[in-house]
Amino acid sequence: MQYYNIHSHVFTMRNAPERFLSLYMPPFAANLIDKITNTQAGASSMAWLLSKLPSNIAKRYASFLRIGKSSDQISVFRTLLDQYNDPGFRFVGLTMYMENTGALNSQTGFEGQLDGVLDIKKQYPDQFLIFMGIDPRWKVSGKELRKTVESKFNYRLSVTATRSVFPFVGLKLYPSTGFYAFDSKLTETFEWAADNGVPVLSHCNYLGGIYNNDKNYLRLALKPVDPYTGQPYNSPEYQESFSFGRWISGTNDAENNKRTCSYFLEPSGFTSLTNYFHSNRQLSQDYTDDWFLAYRKLLGNIPPRMRAALKICLAHYGGDDQILMENGKIPTKVPIGVNPENWCGQIRKLIRNYEGIYTDISYALSNRDTHEFIFSDLEDRALGDRILFGTDFFLTERELPEKQDYTFFRDQAQKLPMKRMPGRTAWDVIASLNTEKFLQSKFYDGTVI
Amino acid sequence: MAISIVICWALFAILCSLVHEAMAQIKAERGRFMKYYLLKQFQDLSNDINWAEALYQQGSVSLLSRDDRKPSNDIDPLVFAKSIIAAVANSHLVNVKLQEFGDVIKRGEKTLPEEVSKIESYTAVLNDLARFKNPVLYKFNAAISLLLPSEQVSLFSSALSNAASQSGNANNILDEQAIYQHLIEHLQGWYIELSQRLTLWYKKKTRVRLFWLGAILALLLNVDSVQLFGLFNKNPAQQQAIMGFYKENQSYLEKLASSIDSIDRNEQSAADSMQQQIGPFTGLDSLRKVAAVYTGKLDSLQKATNLPVGYQYSVFRSEVPSHHPMTYFLLKLIGILISGFAASFGAPFWFDLLRKAYSFK
Fold first, then answer.
1. Which residues of B fall within a CB distance of 8 Å from A41?
2. Is A99 on the interface with B (CB under 8 A)?
3. Per-residue pLDDT tens over the stretch A221-241
């Protein structure tokens, strides 16, 4: 069987916004750490210092910084490969558009990041599967965005003199950087993705990950019109709060911005979009794609019911805390968002109601308390086929080394035979069968095309 | 008396430059400074890519340094020119666009009528590009034609069009080898010009740093120009001793000062020739040896002149006079700042001044 990690990152700090670290820590500390670790002497001293501290968190941050400050993306990917003792394992590398996060531009530019992952693909064509980050602010119109995506997906990357492959197999969204998944500029691209079976993976971790750190932008972007319902999306409000401690450390605005960005991420925000792709959507007319035209010639007008739903994976299962709250393991708190329900619960509902919705357990699996609930959901007939294995390397290095994270979960899952699928283990289902079904498209059919 | 104080400033400037050079080598500062500016100059916001980043990923450049955090500051202009052409030509961004054009034309027969004009324009672009047979030139030209306009694309474009006009074309056939050569020469010329500017920018930055470093060292080692001025004024023997030291070591000191300065100016040949005379100068170990010899000489000078310079005379270790302590601190501050200012001028400036003063005498 072919096993996959559906959620890993290989970007370096050069692909990230210039003030990336200030999204995670007070600006003065971020600046200092960035400056120190830019030199070899500084980086070595910092690593030594952190390794001597008794706290495990410091060590984990040192590892996170070491990987993030790698010279290029291929070095990060090799670090990831070194953690796995299975040479056939496949990794989905998620590229991310991070040029509009209110933390300045990246050094390489987004195209530079894509160039870097294509270099990895050239060297590891079968092991490395790339999801292309998209953002409605990347291109001036929805049409241009779709055209760009289409041409990059159709690009044949020469791997050897006799072999070329499709470099991209999926799309990646990061709404907390400041947009809604229902943004009208994404619709054409999603239509193209649905028609070609291309999967979309969206970040969906409550109060976790990268967010937009521009208060003025957020105030303007919070209440758009939902193009799928035609109604104004009026409920979101900027989360203004004050804490003296945060004010002293200069992180008050950042915390407010992070909390406000929950509106962009919350699973309910995907409902109108999912409805549209689940119902009798009309096919977009201006397809010029070879594969699609052949398909249309063969079948004539495709009856609406035959159209595939858009496959969207709402990653992280909402976050480890949300999983534990949903299962009554820790006290419940009402999340920030239009829908006051728990995010893990919202994702479960979406999965039960719509055929194209998936989730992954990345990052959440570093909290081992979540494992029992993940395993029990795998036995659920509705949920069990749509939960995918991923780790969120290297962002999860702040919690647990990748090797421990992966090995511990795999060993547990391999010991667990599936009651509803005799002969299969939980590992087979989550890391192979479900993921392969999610990935299959015109650009990937279980083998690299 | 003035000559004695100038000698002191020159000696102090050498010391500050040696400390600064050690810091610069530990931090691989010149290479990082160069990379920083190349990344800044080649950040193509229109096309969302940084060409310098792609340049540093080219084997011929990346293999020049053993660590990413210690980039080389010695990229040969020819290596630069060849690598930047390769970086642009081989970028996936350009290749995706080229293939997209080809795909649209290939699909021509299946395309809707309203797309015919698009196909015609795409065909015209590809036909225009096809005048280059050399794959590198073909793709470099494609980048210029297919990417969005930006300062960087305009630099590449002007380099290529100058190269094409310089090489001429006989019977409508392009001499691609000549074009490539001229293209390289043009980019080399641009790079040499940028390097010269970088040297100036680096010197400016160094001057500011030398001021602060000089002020800190003056504070720690009590290099108080006001105090020294007073001492030389009162004690001609100390003046004579310091001038004697200078005469005795003039050649060594001037060579040492020039070699530090030539490193700052990135003049390898000048630095090399100096190094043959005063010892090797590249690398931290060799710098340490040079510094050890130099500080040894300064120690012996301090013993001979009995000047109150050194850590034992530092403001942190000496007693503050009970009369007018504010005046003491104010004069100390002025003396230290003057010393920092003197260090920021660099040793060659003071040695030049000394040469002129002696020739006038």
1. 26-27
2. yes
3. 999 999 988 999 989 999 998
A388 strand-pairing partners: A360
- Whether the ipTM is more than 0.85: the answer is no
**Using CA atoms, how far apart are residues A265 and A262, in angstroms rounded to an integer?**
5
Which residues in chain B are closer than 8 Å to A39, comparing Cβ atoms? 26-28, 32, 69
Report CB contact under 8 Å: A154, B99: yes
CB atoms B93 and A114 under 8 Å: yes
- For an interface test with B, give the residue of A45, A67, A155 to mutate (most B CBs within 10 A): A155
φ, ψ dihedrals at A37, nearest 5°? -80, 0
* Percentage of the residues of chain B whose pLDDT score is greater than 90: 43
What is the token pair recorded at B101? 């054009």
In tens, the pLDDT along A260-274 reads 999 999 999 999 999
Cβ–Cβ gap A72/B95 under 8 Å: no
Q: Do B28 and A39 touch (CB under 8 A)?
A: yes
Q: What is the pLDDT of residues A287-318, one digit of tens each?
A: 444 554 455 455 555 544 455 789 999 999 99
Please state, in angstroms and rounded to a whole number, the distance separating the CA atoms of residues B243 and A41.
40
Chain B: nearest CA to A311, how far in angstroms?
26
Q: Which residue has the tokens 């064509």?
A: A125
B26 touches chain A (CB under 8 A): yes
Q: What is the pLDDT of residue A389?
A: 97
Verify cis geometry, omega within 30 degrees of 0, for the bond prior to B42. no
Mutate to test the interface with A, among B39, B69, B91 (most CBs of A within 10 A): B69
By DSSP bridging, strand A157-160 and strand A168-173 are unpaired
> Residue A314's beta-bridge partner residues?
A202, A359
Cα separations in angstroms, B66 against B29, B173, B294: 15, 44, 30
* Token pair belonging to A228: 């799928």
The predicted model gives B309-325 an average pLDDT of 82
- Per CB-CB distance under 8 Å, the chain A contacts of B99 are 151, 154-156
Q: Is B90:A146 a contact under the CB 8 Å cutoff?
A: no
What's the rounded Cα separation, in Å, for the pair B277 and A261? 65
Is the pTM above the cut of 0.90? no
